[in-house]
């Protein structure tokens, strides 16, 4: 098996590392929030893997075929054919990105205030849209220590799921969201057995199961590598089985469709399609374009298939693992094994002197930028927000700093530069200080909050 990337580089974009003094000034001007940093002031940008990847020559050439008709564009039907072939779902709606899919779906599925939406673990916008629609999101993740190996740390706790249904009543649960891979748990995969059992329980109680599949191809790769009986199956065949255990999907196509913008809704049932589609038209656009240009639909159709290529997946997951092994060998505490799209540093263990409500994961993002111009993001109690009833900070089971690696963008030499910055910060970890709010938005606060050092 070749060790190099399964592609050649055809175009490059200059990057630079500004001085320490310039980084200090930039971080202060950004109110210690990495979202406010200018990308030109960032050396290696690991804020997110969403829409930050590089498209292939096949995607760029497909964009020239974009049909920009408002309704019934041929580009839509190419996308629909691809989605149906991979998922088995006949009813497909594009959206401008994943949060457009979430807003449209939850606005129709959550029919009264106080309903529950249950997941193996929500990510930020999914949780936010459930709350904005009046629901109470509930995480039922299996509990595994970050430093212990388990092949599928993203699994739903199906025992707790059935207990929750019996305790609160199926009529009070809008739907079950199966997130694959499980981003908030550290990009961790979900096993086919767990997906199958979750679907069985849902059908027993007449509940709807929707996949959140931003990173569906990476999850299929982990099933192939780690779950008995799947080693000889192709990723596309694993995907087809996985989607058979659900009623539909929401997707940010900016991850495993390898595009810079776009999202998807897809359903097995026409009634559900009509119900959610009624919200797409006012929120996103007509059902066959959903806020996207025809050229974006063309690129998405190509990218959905490229992401299932076994050689690409081995490279993709392998690069993330390479960074994880560099950090782990230096003693840096991380979620182990690493997930498919990012290395998640256990900031609570990295910075044990910083209390959880001073957000150690966010404090570490500031330190990494100062150390090496690396932009990361917190995934922990800051992202969880406040309880809408009590107003108290919700404590996350994890205090992570996420290093999300864009697809087909950086080399392993860049990963070594990232590792050097993290390791240097770890050597001086006692000097890192917590953060406090100077401005706190009510919803999805981590995107636009202002901070100062404690």
UniProtKB/TrEMBL annotation:
Keywords: Lyase, Pyridoxal phosphate, Tryptophan catabolism
Signal peptide: none
Gene3D superfamilies, per the entry: Aspartate Aminotransferase, domain 1 (3.90.1150.10), Type I PLP-dependent aspartate aminotransferase-like (Major domain) (3.40.640.10)
Enzyme Commission numbers on file: 4.1.99.1
Reactions listed under catalytic activity: L-tryptophan + H2O = indole + pyruvate + NH4(+)
Pathway(s) per entry: Amino-acid degradation; L-tryptophan degradation via pyruvate pathway; indole and pyruvate from L-tryptophan: step 1/1
Residues forming coiled coils: none
All residue ranges annotated as the Aromatic amino acid beta-eliminating lyase/threonine aldolase domain in the record: 45-420
Gene Ontology molecular function, alphabetical: tryptophanase activity
UniProt name for this protein: Tryptophanase
Gene that encodes it: tnaA
